[in-house]
User: Fold this.
Amino acid sequence: MVRVADTQVVNARWIRSWWAHQLFFKQTWRGSVASSLLFPFLFLTSLGVGVGKLVTAHTGLVQGQTYLHFIAPSLLATTAMQLAEGESLWPVLASVKWTRGYHAAAATPLEPDDILFGKLAWVATRAFATSFVYTLIIACFGTLQSWWFLTLPFIGTLVAIAFSAPLVAFAARSDSDASFAVLYRFAMVPMFLFSATFYPLSVYPDYLRPIVQLIPLYHGVALTRAAAFGQGSLGTELAHVAFLLAVAFLGIAWGRRTMRRRLTD
Amino acid sequence: MNYGHILEARNLVKRFGDFEAVKGIDVAIDRGESFGFLGPNGAGKTSTMRMISAVSQPTDGTIEIFGLDPRIDGPEIRRRLGVVPQEDSLELELSVKNNLLMYGRYFDLPRSVIRERTTELLEFTQLTERANDKVDNLSGGMKRRLTIARGLMNRPEILILDEPTTGLDPQARHLLWDRLYRLKREGVTLIITTHYMDEAEQLCDRLVIMDQGKIVAEGAPRALIERYSTREVVELRFATDDHEQYVNQITKFADRIEVLPDRILLYVNDGDDALRDVHAAGINPASALVRRSSLEDVFLHLTGRSLTD
Assistant:
């Protein structure tokens, strides 16, 4: 049997899948861009400015920062996480079940892997752009105190991929969105609230800290703070990166399996 | 690479857990042929189609498409196939044009080529006026036509259509059939599944009849009818709940009879003659119909069940 190489290929197959996402996005971007930046901005003003006044009056600075500055970088991590949720749950379920767009793509030269990697590349694109704009916004608030802030868009992208990969895998094996509400209530919202986003880890009693450190978002939050303020040791920060990378790789491995099963069985 | 079959499957099996959807079938399809899989829902047609579209892997057996093995050359095979799935799977939020653009890009076609073919294909499927409309706003027939246009975007050598006209009104069906004849004339190999016998008779040069994961007969539609049925059929309905009671009186008028819940079918050479005999014997059905034998009768004869059950 003859083996035929893909001839005259201009774009790698996963790029074609990425391209489809941006085509779709161009028709619907207004709502999603606004909400993905509006949400952190609301938190920043209500908590940072409002609650910040109380915090400053009662305890003064938090780890050497005003409360507004303290929570500003961590909201970049939560924004990246929420962007990943929004891109990875319903749109993926729709594509495998309701509109069946992924099945249509799987009938073309694209392989399930290409569809997955195109999706993740698209999430990375959006996360990078959103983190970039958000970094500019908090720069205006005067939060950034170190050149490490240049890594913030990359941190946002890493956090988004670490969440997107397992969530895509989860959505690709779902038959309805009933489980998504449970996931939100018992995983995503608690993560948002308890990942030391709004206060330092030291607030927790000793025995709870290792548990918090198992939450992926915690590592993203820690990284954004270190980058904005230039604190922390390189070793610790690399450990945070390694944790997020590990979650991303596990998620990708799971995603490749579920996508293959869902699209080719 | 024009020699041999364009598609050949041997002992094809698809299992989902304990359920065996396709139980070892063999098919060989020639270039330019229009080939059908006829069978009721659940016969294993869609599972077969997904395997010969180089999308799903067979549990057992082998397939060769364009002389290539889908396990190794899936992307290359799919580059040369057009697929019209049972469910349209269009992007409802995108315009008609952008659906074609997106799909064309999956094949890595240059934009200029996509633009050209979009104009051509929208013309061909009579959707030119709807080019900029959101797909969500199209009728069922239009969506189906757009799915066919999409399947033709890469100028496929084989077009695979899974239940192409299910859910369409008669007018939309005939328009679709007309487009498929034209493709056939242009030399595109068509592979069609359907549970409509008239569609199979109209469109297919050759077909297999599938039932419960197996092929029960194979041949040209007319040849199958000649082999497994008589020339004509008389359908008798009686004003009764139990058609069985008439069987003894009627058997002698036909080569073979089938008793369905709502009617009795008499397989005969000359329907009008047979009907005259029935009346002459003093049997008065509530209604009587003489028609030519169809693939429905072939299926009934082979499986004892009706296609549309």
User: Anything to note?
Assistant: The interface with chain B takes residues 1-4, 6, 8-11, 13, 16-17, 19-20, 23-24, 27-28, 99-101, 103-111, 263-265 of chain A (CB under 8 Å). The longest helix of chain A spans residues 13-59. Residues 1-7 of chain A have pLDDT under 50 and may be disordered.
